[in-house]
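Consider today's protein:

***
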Amino acid sequence: MDRPGFTASLVAGGVAGVSVDLILFPLDTIKTRLQSPQGFNKAGGFHGIYAGVPSAAIGSFPNAAAFFITYDYVKWFLRTDSSSHLMPVKHMLAASAGEVVACLIRVPSEVVKQRAQVSASSRTFQIFSNILYQEGIPGLYRGYKSTVLREIPFSLVQFPLWESLKALWSWRQDHVVESWQSAVCGAFAGGFAAVVTTPLDVAKTRIMLAKARSSTAGGNVLSALHGVWRTPLLQPHLQCGGESSPSRSCQAL
């Protein structure tokens, strides 16, 4: 395997990251609002679905570029024969290293973006300033551990599957896959990885959106998941105003 070009990885990864993030941003906003503790409607519903897009636009290029530079270089460093059974392991290690590096850029951007998505009336710069004023630099990195814990399993599933699907398709047609074929493989691999890691993504969102100095803001993933698990169980109690409520509607609940 030839040593990857720094410029090629930088530009290709950056442009790809910006394109994907901006095109799919409305869906990302909807996802964040669905995962937020206040619920979809109170978080903004379908209103202001581009809230937080400046943060995504600024962070996407360096984030994606950092990932793909690291990914390509680790693959090159761990070069093995293309027929080796260790190829999936190489892709897993390369993707994991890429995520750890990229999250140094991604997490501050993600924290600001997600808070803007659930507070559409607030400007992105205002949210950024409030975080620095109230929590300092550590506030921008709240959820780093949970993000890495989500992104590494995601990449461990996505990238080996993507590479394997491309290799299988190339073998079946006896030539290297076209760009659109690689995209189809990537879409399937990414979708499958998203399904597997959604619980971790919910925990990440809850941690990033939690109020400062709350228990969830501490960054404990298991605690955040436990809170998500308990929330539906508490809804009847909250709606009835307590266990002593005598109304028939509460008894039905």
